[in-house]
Every structure is written in C-alpha cells, then in structure tokens.
C-alpha cells in the first residue's frame, strides 16, 4: 500500500468513524518464537479467512452501506474471531477474541515505526501529541498525563467538578436540549478545569472560541486557502498555540506550580517545550470531550428507558445525601469519599460503556510479520481489535443486548471489558471520566426529571456511536415531594 492510499484511508476513516485523533500506532509484534521465518515460504502460516473485496476499494462499501457494527458482526459470524478484509485502501486483520485483543494491544513491542495520521490532521491536533508517539517520548508523556489524572490528583477537584455540573444542570431546567451538545459543553469545561485549574479564566473563553473553530474544520478538505474551513481551522490552531504560550508565560512569571495537567507538563524535571505542551493540551481536550459526552448521553437514554434502574440509581444517590446529613457539619458539597459510595451507579456506567461501546474498535499496524493463532499477520497490515464484538459476545456477557448493570457485580473475565482500551495506549483519563460522570449523575438523578422530546430511536456516528440526533430531551427540576 503506498502512502497516498494510506492517507486516503485515514481521511475517510476519520470522517466516518472513530478515534480519528488516536494513534495509528504500530503493533510491534514480538515473541521471536512466533515470528514467521521469512526465508521459507513453505513454512509461512496462512492468512486468516475472510474476503478482500474489489481491488483498492476492497469491502469499504459493505462496511459503510450499513451500521459498521453490522459488518463486523456478520464477518465474525462467517469467519470466526480472526478474519481479513480490505477497507479504505488498507489490508486489515480484525480480531474479536479477548485473547487476540490482548495480544494486539498489550504484547510488548520490540521494534518501532512511528504511526502517522494524515499530515493535515496531525498539524491540527499537534504532531507531538501523545496519540502519535511511542517509545521514550510516549512513556514520558504518559507519566506526565497520568500524574495529573490519577485519583490522588483529581480527588481535590470534586467540588469544582460539582460546581460545573450544577451550573450545567441549572441551565437545562425547563428547556428542550440536545443532550449530546450539552454534555460536550460539560465535558469540555471539566477537561479545561483539569488542564488549567481555576485561575486562567480570561484566556479560557478565548481558547474555547478558537477550539470551536478548529473543530469545525477538522473533517474539511485540507485546502489551506483563505476562506476555506480548513484555513480558518489552521488559523485557530495557531491562535490556540499562542493562547497556551500566554498562559504558560503568565504561570512562569507568577511562579505558580499547578497540580493540574499544565503544571505537570511544566514541572522542571521533565518539562516539555511550549509547542509540546500546546500539542498535548489540545490532544487531551480532543480525547476527553466527545468520548465522555457520548457515554453520558447513552446513560441518560438507558436510564430513561429503564425506570427501575433509574429508581435504584436515585435511591442510592439520595442515600448519599442522607448519610451526609446524618454525619452533620452542614457541608452539602460532594467529596471524593461520597463518590466511592455509589456502587450501583458505577455499575450503570460500566454497563452503558459495554452496551454502547462508543469506540467499536481501535487500530494498530503490524511492523513485522507475526503469527497469531496459526495465522499470519503480515507486516504493514492494519490490525483492529473489535471492542464492540467482544463486549457483545454471549460467551463473555450472557444476553449481551440486555441492559443489566447487575452483571458487573462480579468482575468480568480478563480482557473482555475494554471501554478504555488496554496496554501502553490505554486511556489515562479513565478515572477523571468516571468521576465527572458520577458527579453529574448524582445531581441529575436526585433533582431532575426528563422526557424524550421525539420518537427518534437508532444510532448515529459522530464520530462515536451516539443516540440519533444527539438525544433531544426536555429537562425540568423535580418539584418538592
Ligand atoms: C468515558 C470517556 C472515555 C472513553 C470511553 C475513553 C476511551 C479511550 C480509549 C479506548 C483509548 C485507547 C485508544 C487506543 O488504544 O487506541 C483512550 C486513549 C486516550 N484517552 Fe480516553 N476515553 C475517555 C475519556 C478520556 C478523558 C476524560 C481523557 C483526559 C482527561 C482522556 C484522554 C485520553 C488520552 C490522552 C488517550 C491516549 C493515550 C495514549 O496514547 O497513550 N480520555 N481513551
């Protein structure tokens, strides 16, 4: 496959499905014992079963003429848990067993080749952002990102997140809202808080405006001519870099050491350059916002459709309030400890992430020939672990289409539940995501009621799996009992 076709694949894929911003990282296949002896063709294991479709376009139309999840499910039914196909100009191997997903995502790499996204998209997000990296620089970035998002760092921010949640909910009262759009605003505000803390207010409004312009041009044709969306987007990207540089310089002048993500990036021992910081801040916003907002939108939908589950969530959350009142002290603000007393609500979040599987898959690229399960994965082929298929397999989750949070009372079998991915590129923001969802749900369930505005059902991809039209709802404050 030449570089032009790789570029086309990435462009099309990003305009349709998922994780456009995430790495096209290399699967560095190790285990020398499993290597295919390249000198002797006779000993080569066969390619997995499957069909490659027409020259160049492969099976792209079959994939996109329907819900892509239907394509994956049909293929798996026909060929089993490992199969080959050809989509968007690339030969691919798709894997849908927990073991194979683990092999692809967790197996330690021995050699590397940078996974590239389409150049224009990398320029928009930032070529030095964490998704596109591996090796020492990736490990260093991960340490810095994790330092800011691990429970130790986020526990103090519960009241701030609560403040953001309450402001959002108040603004929905009595209105018909597009749930996804509103959840995006909420997740954006929480992400900004965890990146910059509370003290950069004036720059943050400017930053938000530029980010919205950047995002509008993300899937546009990469024609950098004045007047085009792409051009506006690239200008906004430049301005974003300048705003971040301004915030950094203000922190340096004031000698502030924040415990937020920016503080972690600026910390002297492993400090990044200003450009590296800007790329990674924009990348984290990109990773944090639509993902969390999609999950929240699905939760609201599933709770609306399952009154007994909503009742159980509400009772659990009311119990948290009661316990706080009984403990006295008069402080009604949520604490980290309160969020640890929400086991049923946490299972609702898990079950939502399983059923909705907003990221149907991720992908890597084999950097050398490797054998898995008696089949050859050839160098240069894309390898796609199909999260959704794993989450919807009756072997892993009985009655997989049923929304049943109680199934998470027992831990799922190893490698069967991967809403945050697995291995070296797994989601470093998962604790923050769960925390901000819990905080919003606490107030949503105890203070608000909602009803679906339309009769639309179904699913859309934008780029993550979403209820149709972003789930229009009417929200209102519960009247006193
Ligand atoms: C419910 C919400 C979220 C979901 C479902 C989610 C899911 C994922 C998944 C599956 C990956 C791995 C992709 C791969 O292996 O190719 C990932 C990576 C990532 N996520 Fe999340 N994520 C969520 C929220 C967040 C938040 C809130 C943040 C930051 C505050 C974040 C930051 C990141 C970053 C920086 C990466 C790249 C890690 C790397 O390449 O090393 N995510 N996410």
TrEMBL record:
Keywords: Heme, Iron, Membrane, Metal-binding, Monooxygenase, Oxidoreductase, Transmembrane, Transmembrane helix. It is a single-pass membrane protein. It is an enzyme of class 1 (oxidoreductase). One of its GO terms (biological process) is sterol metabolic process. Pathway: Plant hormone degradation; abscisic acid degradation. One of its GO terms (molecular function) is (+)-abscisic acid 8'-hydroxylase activity. Heme binds at residue 427. The keyword Membrane applies. It comes from the Eukaryota. Its main location: membrane. Its cofactor is heme. Involved in the oxidative degradation of abscisic acid. Belongs to the cytochrome P450 family. This is (+)-abscisic acid 8'-hydroxylase. It comes from Asparagus officinalis (Garden asparagus).
